[in-house]
Structures are given as structure tokens and as C-alpha cells.
């Protein structure tokens, strides 16, 4: 089972990542968000930052649907994210190795081309 500290450790291990001040976690590369804690909104109530749920950037709608349909115990979405390449992940339903894969993939999708090669250089 993974948690918010695992997200933080994995995200900050990637090149050029900046953590934005928030009540949970919020990470960006090249000024673009790639993983953050879920800001749950309920009608008539203030939003709640859920650090047990990560919002991850994915490549496109097809990848989003594959995750949602293939692993519904781990991934979900809300109408607020309709049409956006974002999924929510229950951190308690994923191991750290899988989380690392997901966070790294999200980073790759958002990193500007000029920075993307730095991940491969760091792995060598």
C-alpha cells in the first residue's frame, strides 16, 4: 500500500520537479501539474484535500478509459474531470512499484521536450 509520502518521495526524485505549496501534495514539471492530491468537492460543503487519493495525468482519453475499466478498484473519475486526461488513484490500493510507474508516466506526459531527456540521463 502506498501513501502520500510515497507520492512525494517518488515525484521529487524525478528531474526538474517543483512542489507547490498546498494542504496535500502538488507536483509540477515545466510549470505543468502531473500529480496532486484530490480536491474533493461536495455540494454545499467546503472542498476537502484528500491525500489518500492522487490525481494523475495520463496520456489521453483511451489510456484513461483503459485504467478505469481495467482496474476499477484502483482508479476512478468524477464528472469534473470529464474530457480531461486525468484519473484518480486510491493510494491504498496500489503498491509502491506501481505508483512509481504511474508517477513517472505522468511526468513523461507533462515534461516539456527540452526536459524529457533528463529522465533517461538520470536513469543511466
What's the gist of this structure?
The chain is α+β, with helices and mostly antiparallel strands and 124 residues long. 36% of the residues lie in helices and 27% in strands.
Give an overview of the whole structure.
- Pfam families: YjbR.
- It comes from Actinomadura montaniterrae.
- InterPro entries: YjbR/MT2646/Rv2570-like (IPR058532).
- This is MmcQ/YjbR family DNA-binding protein.
- The chain has 124 residues and is of the alpha+beta class.
- The protein has a single domain (4-114), classed as Aspartate Aminotransferase, domain 1, CATH 3.90.1150.
- It is 36% helix and 27% strand.
- It has four helices and six strands.
- The chain has helices at residues 4-12, 61-70, 96-110, 113-123, and strands at 17-19, 26-29, 32-40, 48-57, 75-76, 86-90.
- A six-stranded antiparallel β-sheet has the order 1-2-3-4-6-5.
- A hairpin with a 2-residue loop joins strand 2 and strand 3.
- The radius of gyration is 14 Å and the shape is globular.
- The two termini are 28 Å apart.
